[in-house]
Amino acid sequence: MRSRAAAGLIAAVAALVSAPGASAAVQLAKIGGFPQPIYVTAPPGDPQRLFVVEKGGQIELIHAGVRKPFLDVGGGIVTRSEDGLLSMAFAPDYATSGRFYVYYTATRPGDSAGDVLTLVEFRRSATDPDRADPASRRVVLTIDHPSYSNHNGGQLAFGPGGMLYLGPGDGGGANDPAGNAQNKAVLLGKLLRIDPRQNGGSPYTVPADNPFVGEVGTAPEIYAYGLRNPWRFSFDRLNGDLVIGDVGQSAREEVDFAQHGTGAGADYGWRCREGTLATPNLIPPCTPSGNYAGPILEYDHSGGRCAIVGGYVVRDRALPTLYGRYVYSDNCGGDIRSIALPPSSASDSSTGLTRKGIYSFGEDACGHLYLATGGGEVDVLVDGTFKACPVKPLPPKLTLSRARTQTLGPDRSLHLRVACSENCVVTASGTVSVPGAKRLFKFGRQTWPLAGRKPLRLRLQLGRRAAKAARRAIDRGRLVHATLTVVARDGAGSESTASTTVRVLS
Q: Which of 200, 223, 462, 498 could form a disulfide bond with 467, CB atoms 3.0-4.6 angstroms apart?
């Protein structure tokens, strides 16, 4: 049975969804059965591998039609209730570094109820790319979770800036009895942001631009707070927007949202509010901070619903009716739904698909959307015939246009028009070569979302010191040139780069 379940990923899925009489509508196609699948993911830029994380501590890999054991995290994992091996994330440079991270609940010595939330780094085997090296284990971070076996959070994800985000729950119990979610001195009930690489004697580094760095009495790892149990959150692979599915208590489930470049320091309201409702019978009463960010979607527990399962913004072009929409579900209700994110109308609607006991959604390297269920099944969302990830995804076509000679005006800026053949995120940077200067001067790096085939005029600004040096050289009759570089990334993670040179006048 196991060998049959491991039959070729592409062939098995294609056979399921292209059978005679199959309608071209969104449907679920079974990938395989697993003992306790709890999460599905893939390394960035690797279209050939799919990883299934299991609650008991095992990670399995499907590669080239073969299902293989990748890693058994080992002893010490607690698997009761909401505990277990909960997530996995690959470093952005996994192809070269082999670094990946797992998040699980470990035993708490002498405590039958509490546990320790544990973030661990492993590396891929140096001799077999389809195996992890168990001996490479390095503990990055532990968070004491002393009283309850629920509200552990569960998600790991690298954000658009290459930092690792982790969402521990509030510690469990009704109404957050310890007040953790609003207490910025502790890590529970938060969204954390770190650079997980070892830095000398430190197991990780806190990014200098985290919102609470230097604030007395506040843990600098905190990126946002006021979360109850952010079981699953994700970043839009196209534009970097953050979406959080925060599990509610008895009144509301909610979806929280932060557009890329915003959200640092946000207070999502718990325990003061559950959804938009004030939490009753709190002693002392609680009011969200001035950084309160209310949910973009909330729902009650009617119809048997109980716990939101946050998903992903669909960037699979083979799902045209869902493209650009956020897909989510409920662990008890099972209705798979989608919403349009701000600034569009929420327009919450059902996909027409139902699967009871969904634990989580997941993405592969080119944006196919998967789901894992408590019944042991892993499925992929398809519309008609399954289109496998190409071995080498075609990059977006990037077009630059600019005036060959530009004046460095009072705003110290140069301009560039950019177009992309599809929806892209473009990052522009540049350098200025000033004769006589000992170094190149750099423009500030900027990032913009760009709609397919719609040109955008970009403005790159020099710092005051660089502009002064450039103007001085120009006034002395020297030639000053700027090299402008744009990188375009599409929803499948494919990139194109283009550069151009501009002569600068004062």
A: 462
